[in-house]
Design a protein that fits this description.
Layout (H helix, E strand, L loop, with lengths): L1 H30 L6 H55 L24 H22 L9 H24 L4 H26 L5 H27 L6 H17 L3
Length: 259
């Protein structure tokens, strides 16, 4: 029991570490508000997108396929993407469509323009982060060591998300208190979600965690396509594609080079 609590605390801390990139990005955005142009933010989003592509393709789907086979990996992947896109579509109807936009190219709605959009944006931000946290919990099942490349990849991709989204929130007139409260809350939820992923699936057969892993990968890819890529490539600077490739390469090397 003591050992399990120790592992749960460890998983939660890794989840907090990965999610802390969101809060760091938000703090930078609010503290230095107005000093980052859309092109700079778009470049960071492109880099973060490349990181996520590497993490989900090299680590998540590969692990899901190896542990659960093609059926579990395919089923989970498609269900995850479907679930994210469906929920994201509903949230978009309530003002959260542009929650990860910095506001210079496409503005987030203010509460006056779209009542309830602040709550929808908060729920959407949680939706974006939960799959990553659950994956971290799954990576410690059966006593396995945490994948440092996984945590580093999620951290690196979260910083630009927090930077862009918080910049857009600030431009839409939301207070610094709201922004910091939102991302601090999501950070805590990230830790709890990581622990929950380990606790709830720790005794399941290998096909179930593999399906959940693929489900998370599908959700992350759908989020990338619907949320990060539009910001990265809207009125983007030259070589944004190259920046995305560099992000992929950095994550690839972190994952593949032995510690």
């Amino acid at each position: 029991m003591v050992l399990k609590l120790h592992i749960l605390a460890q998983v939660a801390l890794w989840g907090l570490l990965a999610g802390s990139g969101l809060l760091i990005g938000a703090v930078v955005a609010v503290t230095l508000y107005g000093r980052f142009s859309h092109r700079i933010i778009a470049a960071t989003m492109g880099f973060g997108g490349g990181v996520l592509i590497a993490v989900l393709s090299i680590q998540l789907m590969e692990s899901a396929y190896d542990d659960g086979g093609p059926i579990a990996a395919t089923t989970g992947f498609l269900l995850g993407a479907t679930a994210f896109s469906t929920i994201n579509w509903r949230l978009a109807q309530n003002g959260a469509r542009h929650r990860n936009r910095c506001g210079e190219c496409v503005e987030q709605p203010s509460e006056t323009e779209h009542k309830g959009s602040g709550l929808a944006i908060a729920v959407g931000a949680v939706l974006d982060g939960i799959p990553e946290s659950v994956v971290i919990g799954l990576s410690l099942l059966a006593g396995e060591n945490i994948g440092l490349g996984l945590v580093a990849g999620f951290f690196l991709s979260n910083v630009p998300q927090g930077l862009s989204s918080a910049s857009g929130m600030k431009k839409a007139g939301r207070s610094s208190k709201y922004i910091f409260s939102l991302w601090t809350g999501i950070l805590l939820i990230s830790g709890m979600a990581a622990a929950a992923g380990y606790l709830l699936l720790g005794t399941a057969n290998s096909a179930i965690p593999a399906t959940i892993l693929a489900f998370a990968a599908g959700g992350v890819l759908a989020m990338l396509a619907e949320s990060m890529i539009p910001e990265a490539f809207a009125d983007a600077q030259p070589f944004t594609g190259l920046i995305t490739v560099v992000g992929f390469l950095v994550a690839f090397l972190i994952i593949r080079i032995p510690a």
